[in-house]
């Protein structure tokens, strides 16, 4: 399968940044070759590479095609801001598993911070890899407020994942490495549905992958 | 939740190896304290630590309890022998997600090898972590022969994971990093059910976690 690149359309051309130009050189693309590009907004551009330099590249657009529409029912995931490697992995898996929005939240027990810019680059790389034309939105959020249905994974939750009603937009809250604080637990109990994944203890990333993937499958997002 | 240790019962005592003795020292256990131990065969032993040395430990058994029975319907996973980090991760996730047997297989495109002993230690650590009293069996297998229902993850598979019949024992074939060879593909097409996980491209470990976890949930193994 040919590579998918990310670029910005401008006057009949696509402009690629240094990172994409680097990716092109790694896969040994040459000027004059045809490349497929997305703008991350749902469009695919078939274009011919006219200029490939170290810090940028440009291609002429031959064909534009709408590949993905903004979904009416959204799958959002609250990803904890924790150690970067862990946060990075979760962002990557959310992209791969069809999440529409990634909400970065700093739980009370987390001493870490995260760069929005770095997170956006992870989304870009993961989306290119699994050919998502409409990139998930990434936001920092300050509160655990939810407009629609939200669930929290909890071994004591009364609803089993398999029996969960997946209609409408859903937000999945993934807990931080050190667990929720008492205050957060209370708040999530009031504002979200506590969902269990059986009786065994799963590591958080395993539980998160299973839940996001299962709901995405049910909602036909993957 | 208190720690679970692994040891071998012998004449009313439990004998622990160097690895377990090390784990005990790490969590600052002292002689005279009560510890919970499993033999990996489904039993829990409540015992009191009588001797904690660098290379071994011994505890006196106070109570024995059968915690897990050999299941009649088994969940088996063919894990590819590949780069150790990747194979290790898959073994760990299979334990966590309730697999009953882990079948290590070297696919044609793999140049790697694996130590059965190292694999058994990964199973032990993962099982202790998620409190499995009946450890999954680990075997090296030489052929892709299956007595019961077997599935292979394939984007072109005609059955969607959610619609799959999960009754009876099931073997899940997880592909190697470099993909199946043509011969293996043909063989798996004949001998297994090709199952898809939607239309998007998932990384192999993501697909494997989602599939093992989903079937384990449906079969109430987790």
UniProtKB/TrEMBL annotation, chains A, B:
Keywords: Cytoplasm, Methyltransferase, rRNA processing, S-adenosyl-L-methionine, Transferase. GO terms for cellular component: cytoplasm. Its EC number is 2.1.1.193. GO terms for biological process: rRNA base methylation. Pfam families: Methyltrans_RNA, PUA_4. Belongs to the RNA methyltransferase RsmE family. Residues 70-215 form the Ribosomal RNA small subunit methyltransferase E methyltransferase domain. GO terms for molecular function: rRNA (uridine-N3-)-methyltransferase activity. It catalyses: uridine(1498) in 16S rRNA + S-adenosyl-L-methionine = N(3)-methyluridine(1498) in 16S rRNA + S-adenosyl-L-homocysteine + H(+). It is found in: Cytoplasm. PANTHER family: 16S RRNA (URACIL(1498)-N(3))-METHYLTRANSFERASE, RIBOSOMAL RNA SMALL SUBUNIT METHYLTRANSFERASE E. It is an enzyme of class 2 (transferase). Specifically methylates the N3 position of the uracil ring of uridine 1498 (m3U1498) in 16S rRNA. Acts on the fully assembled 30S ribosomal subunit. Residues 16-62 form the Ribosomal RNA small subunit methyltransferase E PUA-like domain. This is Ribosomal RNA small subunit methyltransferase E.
